[in-house]
Design goal:
2 copies of one chain form a homodimer. Chain A is of the alpha/beta class and 350 residues long. Chain A has 2 domains: 193 residues, Isopropylmalate Dehydrogenase (3-Layer(aba) Sandwich); 136 residues, Isopropylmalate Dehydrogenase, CATH 3.40.718.10. Chain A contains 12 helices and 12 strands. In chain A, the strands form 2 sheets. A 10-stranded mixed beta sheet of chain A has the order 2-1-3-12-11-4-5-10-8-9, with helices on both faces. In chain A, β6 and β7 form a beta hairpin. In chain A, α2 packs across α4. The model of chain A has no long low-confidence stretch (mean pLDDT 96). Chains A and B meet through β6, β7, α7, α8 and α9 of A and β6, β7, α7, α8 and α9 of B. The complex binds 3-isopropylmalic acid (2 copies). One 3-isopropylmalic acid sits at the interface of chains B and A.
Chain lengths: 350, 350
């Protein structure tokens, strides 16, 4: 198959992990006889430096005409306090590609049990997925502004349609998995959460095979530590999803392991690791490339329906971990620390 | 000393744990020669049942003329879907007493190490305190409403003054402890967080002895699991504080252990456990009374400056745990399960 991919390495460790992902894609091309036409474009801080804008229109246009988009990470202290912020580029591309559902799987890797802060018996069988609303809620709604020196406001607004589409996606995913869906809200305080809960209850009628549970966000934050194995699919508002999915990364032991797929109703999906640009280790060949590589596997599976190829990558990741190759964020007592490039070498070799 | 206390048992396990707290207060009265004039008033679901309102004006008036207020918990399935909700009573009393700073200490109890989902070496030395903004932010600001069937909105608004007073409180607490303050926000996305961060940076100039760090809320949710020992004082917005403090309760092993104090610039403080009304175990004499009892100790210390009395209660809690008396939420392999009343018996006996 021939596919067009726009690649947005971004800032910090973004370019390093993206380089790894592209090497893995080359290996997939060779082994499975595909052709991936890759175009690299700037976003975030790099784009601000080059064009003055965190998301130049050329970048957006290129993304829109591709089959899928890979993104590394954006941001860094260099752009702190500037009027244009790298993160605006990330928020904007999510909005402009209309990728309203952000899928973040969290699965315990058996070989990483020792590095999780949670007790081993609690994480053994964890295999859950967040469906985070990504283009609305507290992140985007207006008014969102400063009034003089004294006041500031952000808005948590949802239209029923925005909730419906992401909740439907979550029900579909739950139906294809264990059939359990947890909807997280703060319906005892927020009006938007009451609407959210109503929509979930209505949608539930169309998915009689899915068991739905509502959980308050404070309780969910607690339950994810207390007993993460109770969850299968978790659907929630943008900001709640941001907080809870980062928290849940500790089940795997490192944010560096987590992949994500952001999907729209039609149009290209956006695939990015959950970790950020990690300026402190950028340029040192020390970043964990697995979150980016696993995001690439999600792209192959969800956008290109290349299930064997995605399986092969995920399997290689397991094997490399089992063989005790580790970057410093997932350090084990058994092996030495590998560089980003060495981790990718090991993946490709498998 | 003579003090007037308004007691709001509320719903669910509220009355049971409050009964325990009052028995402890009686013991303190007898041992230290104080007189506590206690008036019980309805709030939450109980108040809705009796008066139609979750916070009757008689309850509020009684609170305002007391030296301090003790609150159990509110809410339960009985009032679900009703127009008036028990939680409105809780939110309103916080607002009307103007208790803008909610202090939630989280300390690992050595004898509870085995019940925490976190690995023992991570929680050993945890001793942190949340300062949660409690009368503003996403919980209270207008507009907060439903528009027809289709749309809903909540508002995250702050005036600089609202941020200043709670941040000042947090700096004072940090100065009296290890001198480290972590301010949690989402300044890369929210305008209100940018204002928050500015206020923190300005206030820092008046507290040169306090080391300030800013942390994004998603990262904070992760760090509280990864390495909770790094924190001393954490100050944050109302909703962020709700989520993060419930999450952090897992350090102690149970929400049932956590106490809180909500304070204003002047006027009575409001003391309540962090746990909710736990309708599933209500009326069974099974609730953990320690969160409520420790909240009562906070009242003695902060509102009445009775430090010896507060110390005595906190010591008794330690001893009872060391002697392996446990309610089911903090069950250990070593002892049998005690009832709420038995736990209180043990406390009083010490
Ligand atoms: C960088 C930031 C704007 C972003 C977010 O909050 O969505 C990140 O934390 C994430 O989760 O992808
Ligand atoms: C009951 C609820 C409204 C309340 C809150 O969210 O503040 C509770 O969760 C708390 O933390 O005290």
């Amino acid at each position: 198959m021939e596919k067009t991919i726009t690649v947005l390495p971004g800032d910090g460790i973004g370019p390093e992990v993206m380089k790894g992902a592209l090497r893995v894609l080359k290996a997939v091309e060779a082994r499975y006889g595909h052709q991936f036409n890759v175009t690299e474009m700037p976003i975030g801080g790099k784009a601000i430096d080059e064009t003055g804008l965190p998301l130049p229109s050329e970048t957006l246009e290129q993304c829109k005409k591709s089959d899928a988009v890979l993104l590394g990470a954006v941001g860094g202290p260099k752009w702190d306090g500037m009027e244009k912020r790298p993160e605006q580029g990330l928020l904007q591309i999510r909005k402009d590609l209309n990728v309203f559902a952000n899928l973040r799987p969290v699965k315990a890797f058996a070989s990483l049990g020792d590095i999780s802060p949670l007790k081993p018996e609690l994480i053994e069988n964890v295999d859950l997925i967040f469906v985070r609303e990504l283009t609305g809620g507290l992140y985007f709604a207006q008014p969102k502004r400063r009034t003089g020196n004294e006041e500031a406001v952000d808005t948590l607004y949802y239209h029923r349609n925005e909730i419906e589409r992401v909740v439907k996606k979550a029900f579909e995913i739950a139906a294809s998995r264990s059939g359990k869906l947890t909807s997280v809200d703060k319906a005892n305080v927020l009006e938007s959460s009451k609407l959210w809960r109503e929509v979930v209850n209505e949608m539930a009628k169309s998915f009689p095979e899915v068991k739905v549970e509502h959980m308050l966000v404070d309780n969910a934050a607690m339950q994810l530590v207390r007993n993460p194995g109770q969850f299968d699919v978790i659907v929630t508002e943008n900001m709640f999803g941001d907080i809870l999915s980062d928290e849940a990364s500790m089940i795997t032991g490192s944010l560096g392991m987590l992949a994500s797929a952001s999907v729209s109703e039609e149009g290209p999906g956006l695939y990015e690791p959950v970790h950020g640009s990690a300026p402190d280790i950028a340029g040192k060949n020390a970043a964990n490339p697995l979150g980016m590589v696993l995001s690439t596997a999600m792209m192959l599976r969800h956008s290109f329906h290349m299930n064997d190829e995605a399986d092969a990558i995920e399997m290689a990741v397991q094997e490399v971990l089992n063989a005790n190759y580790r970057t410093s964020d997932i350090e084990s007592k058994k092996g030495r620390i590998s560089t980003t490039d060495e981790m990718v070498d090991q993946l490709i070799y498998r």
